[in-house]
Predict the structure.
Amino acid sequence: MSNKATEKDMELINKYSRRTLKEDEVYTFSVVLCDNDIDRDIEHFDDEALDTLKDLFVGVSAVYDHEPSAKNQIARIYSCGCEMPEGRLTAYNEPYKRLVGKAYIPVCGATEDLIALLDSGIMKEVSIGCAVAKCRCSICGEDMRTSACSHVKGRHYGGKMCCGVLSEPTDAYEWSFTAVPSQRSAGVTKSSVKKWRGAEDSMGEYIDALRKQAEEGRRYKSALRLETVKAGIMANVGIESKLLEKMTAELSVEELTQLKEAFVVKAQQRLPIGAQSRRGREKPEKKERFKEYEI
Ligand SMILES: [Zn+2]
């Protein structure tokens, strides 16, 4: 995750520092800020939005209590770019694209713990705060917030799932570290982001909160793994539970979610038709979806 800062990196970093920093005075790392895949709010950015955000995020600081002020700024993005890992597709079958920021943290006593956490790889995710002008319906193209679009996110229309397409970003406010990624949302910074408030040692509290989140993330993953194994048994695909357990051990949250969904679909196909149509009339349950970003 961390790379040694190159001369070019230092040049960009020093645009933001009051005095010229040396290579060993900064810790640099990459973060995936967002992507074009469907998030847990059943929304995704369109590709053009990622290109716009690429410019908007340069110079933006990470905050740790969501109250931007000089003392809360712990890391800053000094360059930003879009990546398309070869062969990877989104949940809606389009080429996957992500926005990766390069950030730096000044190396000092106050940032020691945070750097150790970043080095350990526990904190792979960040949440972002940005504003977008539109959240278009993937079915009819109308703005879901202002138009009379009657499609419901998560429901299928003619075989296609409706989701909100976040377009035309107008601002990037902030980003923050989170061991369990929070929702992204348009217009305002996310309400689900925990606030870390405190006195002088708020950095310590922040680190503690991140550790707690990491633990919650681990618990979530192990529950998801169990559900995936159960769904696999229900799907009756001819794989024994022991093998399912082994198969799921190394999967990421994203992969587990996909596999579980595939098993659930398969299991539902095995159910009598009556049960399926009853299910169809139920309001779709809003699904929690955690994302894991790996660089
Ligand atoms: Zn619509």
Q: What stands out?
A: Residues 202-235 form the longest helix (34 residues). The chain has two domains: 2-216, 218-281.
